[in-house]
Design brief:
Layout lengths: L1 H7 L3 H7 L3 H12 L7 H5 L4 H15 L3 H12 L5 H28 L7 H4 L9 H10 L5 H19 L8 H11 L2
Helix pairs in contact: 5-10
């Protein structure tokens, strides 16, 4: 607390005049430093392809990872999660409620018209965001912030993976056309 007060140019008493305790300071840090990632449900509803839908969903996460302050705050959040479990739980509940719920609502029309197949990501929507955590894991374990090229590479793989998991299979083809295609492949 002494270091925080000194860094803020306050006395320890002055710091406690603004914040009743450490948890409130940590909450203020999270509120200020973690990006408010907003899933734009209207933009998702306007998408005309599954790829566009997936990109609209994941791009805010990758944009947030470009902010070094947000990444360092995430690292602090993980490091202090045992001592600040209530704060972590609130942050996690917001992520689950806002983002996963928005994703599921955006998929409903696609599911209704058969453009998206049944997949584990429909049952466990938290899996949708798991690849976005890979650059965060590198930061947590190795202390190195992901570079722009690394983020772009991970984002591209993330988008491709979700498209492959979600896209409904093409209309069934006749056995004859499959056999013909296999014969053509061997020529």
């Amino acid at each position: 607390m002494d270091d925080i007060a000194a860094g803020a140019g306050l006395s320890k008493g002055g710091l406690y005049a603004h914040f009743p305790g450490k948890e409130q300071i940590f909450q203020a840090l999270l509120d200020r430093s973690l990006p408010d990632i907003v899933v734009d449900e209207q933009a998702m509803a306007a998408c005309t392809s599954i790829r566009e839908l997936v990109e609209t969903l994941v791009d805010p996460f990758y944009e947030a990872m470009k902010d070094p302050t947000a990444l360092v705050t995430l690292r602090l959040l993980v490091a202090e999660s045992a001592r600040a479990s209530a704060l972590v739980s609130r942050w996690r509940a917001r992520l689950h409620g806002d983002h996963f719920g928005a994703f599921r609502r955006a998929l409903e029309p696609w599911i209704a018209r058969g453009a998206i197949r049944e997949s584990v990501v429909l049952e466990e929507s938290w899996l949708v965001f798991t690849p976005a955590l890979q650059p965060v894991a590198v930061l947590l374990f190795f202390g190195a912030s992901p570079g722009a090229e690394e983020l772009q590479r991970v984002r591209g793989a993330h988008v491709r993976m979700l498209c492959e998991l979600l896209e409904a299979p093409a209309a069934p083809t006749s056995v004859l056309s499959i056999a013909t295609r296999r014969a053509d492949d061997h020529r």
